[in-house]
């Protein structure tokens, strides 16, 4: 057998002790939800619809079995969100899932093309009440292990004002571009030739200047994002309107992304169209939106909040490892 000269390529990346510790953490997560009477569910990994998010690309495969003599394209899910919302619309009550998800083009210290996601939904919760529960879970998993200080909360605007001296709700795209260039950020060439909108500049500043400073020695919950970054969250009217969305950071690493979920089917359909247009402008492949989600929302998605937590990153931090690969048995490209 040809082994490219590497006789250890078959071996797992993570030690067996690390995998035992990982399994123990997963057990703690399941105990957490069992104590709160949240139902564990499983939904399909393969879907008719891929992600229309402008920043996420799905892996595609082809089914050629009965009923598909000429083949049918299927996508490996990037999140279990849409089928879980279909369960919510079918009156499942509170639910959670721990599953493998897949995102093309994502590999590095904090990324693997295949990774483990914890996602849960709470009917009747808004994003603030769900933030309380996310804080409780992550504190239970990480608080004593890492001797964390008390968690902190900060709005998106407060973070920009504190760490960049910018008002993210008032600065326009030109203002943000000038600030980024004046502070020697690593700016993609496409940004300098009209390839970046205002949100792209905000994301650039957030990722390079603000995120590394969030959650030093404590959990930090960042909330009240610009309405233009609502994704699947509700938008709260006001001046400015704000997305009822939050993210959780620890030592500059994003661990979770949550929403007070949008329940308006027609608004969701319109956002899907906007996402598809943005993908086209960015030169990304065209993907059909998930119409089963729209039908479920028309039937009646209950008012709820939901969140996704990156398990590999949580385990990495809990075990004081430097990369997510160190807590995976067979990370990319060892898989």
Question: What do you see in this structure?
Answer:
This protein has 335 residues and is an alpha+beta fold. It has one domain: BirA Bifunctional Protein, domain 2. Helix content is 35%, strand content 21%. It is built from nine helices and twelve strands. The protein has helices at 16-35, 81-89, 127-146, 156-164, 173-182, 198-210, 265-281, 291-300, 311-318; strands spanning 39-40, 46-47, 60-63, 72-76, 95-102, 114-123, 152-155, 219-226, 235-236, 242-250, 253-260, 304-310. The strands form two sheets. Strands 1, 5, 6, 7, 8, 9, 10, 11 and 12 form a nine-stranded mixed β-sheet that branches. Strands 2-4-3 form a three-stranded antiparallel β-sheet, with no helix packed on it. Helix 2 packs parallel to helix 8 (291-300), helix 4 (156-164) packs across helix 6 and helix 7 (265-281) runs antiparallel to helix 8 (291-300). The longest helix has 20 residues, at 16-35. The chain is globular. 34% of the residues are buried. The model has no long low-confidence stretch (mean pLDDT 94).
